[in-house]
Amino acid sequence: VQLQASGGGSVQPGGSLRLSCAASGVSLGDNAIGWFRQRPGREREAVACISSVDGTTYYADFLKGRFTISRDNTKNTVYLQMNSVEPEDTAVYFCAARYGSNMYARVPSEYTYWGQGTLVTVSS
Questions:
Q1: 61 band by pLDDT with thresholds 50, 70 and 90
Q2: Sheet holding 17-24, edge to edge
Q3: Is there a contact between 23 and 97 (Cβ–Cβ < 8 Å)?
Q4: From the CB of residue 62, how many other CB atoms can be counted at a distance below 10 Å?
Q5: How far is Cα 101 from Cα 112, in angstroms, rounded to an integer?
Q6: For residue 28, what pLDDT is reported?
């Protein structure tokens, strides 16, 4: 099983990025998926999650509607569209699959498989 996160980079405040999480060895359509981030000196935190059955989503309060999680089961890929980014969004972003569970969780320890992380830097 491998999750490959990509799409990170440097962006100016107010800009946009789209992160991708491509999977092999596991069907992302059958498992809940979460995007997490880890800022320097901080614990890993949930950003957005999506369940596999009905597409129910969770977004962290601090996002204020700026990010959107989505999935393309035909490509076995989950996306995180990041709009109106802020310097506080600077972090390593990880995708994770909660294997065997249809429902998302907000706790990192509930997830089975993790991508390697992709760095997002928001700076002018």
A1: very high
A2: 2-6, 17-24, 77-82, 67-72
A3: yes
A4: 12
A5: 10
A6: 87
Residue 56 contacts residue 104 (beta carbons within 8 Å): yes
Q: Give the integer Cα–Cα distance in Å for 67 and 45.
A: 15
Contacts of 84 (CB under 8 A, 6+ apart): 14, 16, 66
Q: Beta partners for 114?
A: 96
Helix (H, G, I), strand (E, B) or coil at 70: strand
- For 35-52, the pLDDT digits (tens) are 999 999 999 999 999 999
**Rounded mean pLDDT of 53-75?**
94
CA distance 48 to 89: 13
Q: What is the largest CA-CA distance in the chain?
A: 42
Q: Which residue has the tokens 């440097």?
A: 10
